[in-house]
# Entry
Amino acid sequence: MGRAVCRKCWTWHGSGATVCPRCGAPLQPGNAATPSEPGPSPASPVGSEQGSAAATALPPAAAPAMVGAHRRWRLAAIGGGVVVLGVVAMLLVLQLSARAVSTDGAFSVQVPAGWERFSGTDLPDGTPVTNDLIVLLGPRADGVQARVFVFHHPSGYIDHAFCQYSGVLGHYSRETSTTVAGSAALVTDCRTPTVSIESITVTHASHTYQLAFSAASSQFDRLRDGALRDLLGSWRWN
# Structure
């Protein structure tokens, strides 16, 4: 057997030795291939660190693309806002268009749903409305169409003692105080088996107005507490 080598401390020893007397490591035959010393680890490609950093950064072409996407998003947001504003404006116009302005321009009211403003001179039954400030026609029941008339209160005292419809007399209730758009008003009603009427007299800015609401007696309470109350709540002085 030839000489032996300690591959731990790389010392050579005579033949017959099996353990390195210096470090105690087993000896290897001297003719064994010398293991290549571990060389330096493969060098990272030049700019690898910069490459990894660059991997997290946007490539040059991505920046304009991102700016373009942001611009498109902003334009889309602006366009959406314009659409929303347009819809709101349209709804406001529709809402305002549903308001009825008195012929003297003194006030306006919101026309209740299912009602319409009458702009003729005489109703089909011959009732003249030429001098009325506002005339609204509502739903029909029991052959009677609901109506609202607003006109200037005539000078002098108005007898609210009784009302008459189709030959049937009814008596007005005692007047009670209320307000219409902040102005003092008096309310009274008269009922017959067929038609019932509510009369409201309003004083505002040295002028007196009278509102007369009539409907089939079977529908009077429902329309008075619904459409008429909504109309009075929408009353605005100009």
Q: What stands out?
A: The two ends are 126 Å apart (CA to CA). The chain has two domains: 1-33, 100-237. The chain has a mean pLDDT of 80.
